[in-house]
Amino acid sequence: MPYLTEIIIIIISYLLGSIPFALLVGKLGYKVDVREHGSGNLGTTNTFRVLGKKAGTIVLLGDMGKGLVAALLPLLFGSEMSLLLAGIPAIIGHSYPIFAKFKGGKSVATSAGVLLAAFPWFFVVVVGTFIVTLLVSKMVSLSSMAASVVALVTVVVYGLMTKDWLPLIVIVPLALFIIIKHRSNWERIRAGTEPKVPLFQKRKG
User: Fold this and answer.
1) Residues 64-81: pLDDT tens digits?
2) Over the chain, what HEC string results?
3) Which of 52, 97, 105, 190 is deepest in the core (most CB within 10 A)?
4) Residues 36 and 117: beta-carbon distance below 8 Å
5) What is the pLDDT of residue 145?
6) What pLDDT is recorded for position 24?
7) What are 27-70's pLDDT values in tens digits?
8) First-to-last CA distance in the chain?
9) Residue 139 · residue 196 · CB < 8 Å
């Protein structure tokens, strides 16, 4: 069957992305369903807010890790499939996980893991933007959107310079997807009601 290996990679990638680390860490480690608290998202940010730094860090590493592993599947299977394309189903799986009734997170950490595997230099640029914005604003949502905008600009410049259009074709929809997923956050930012992350404070209680 033609492209059987690539089909298998896509399926495994989606299933990896569907692993709800926020849900697992919350229920197994804290007896808490993070979907019932905070924003209700199964992602790193909500885990930090609801469960604290330790749980949030574990979920961050897990969400990034599944994106990284998914993107590296072509190397494992000996396929010539693009690492970037192989990671896309994992990103979709994180936002629409089959293991959590198709209600997941906003795919920022998982996208970062895919970029780390496919384009390490691009990962440095985007994550660097995220960290700087976070340190200044203490808003994860604003940091995610800023990183997405920088990703859009960077990938366009990269395409124009190298004539390699695959990253442009893949990353532009991905960045727009992340921005759209944060549209409710943008409204709260404009209204001045968006929660900030107390980066250097101990969790109360």
Assistant:
1) 999 999 999 999 999 999
2) CCCHHHHHHHHHHHHHHCCCHHHHHHHHHHCCCHHHCCCCCCCHHHHHHHHCHHHHHHHHHHHHHHHHHHHCHHHHHCCCCCHHHHHHHHHHHHHCCHHHCCCCCCCHHHHHHHHHHHCHHHHHHHHHHHHHHHHHHCCHHHHHHHHHHHHHHHHHHHHHHHCCCHHHHHHHHHHHHHHHHCHHHHHHHHHCCCCCCCCCCCCCC
3) 105
4) no
5) 92
6) 96
7) 999 999 999 998 888 988 889 889 988 999 999 999 999 999 99
8) 57
9) yes
- Residue 56's nearest CA partner among 40, 42, 37 is 42
d(CA 172, CA 177): 8
Position of tokens 């859009």?
A: 152
Which pLDDT does position 199 carry in this prediction? 54
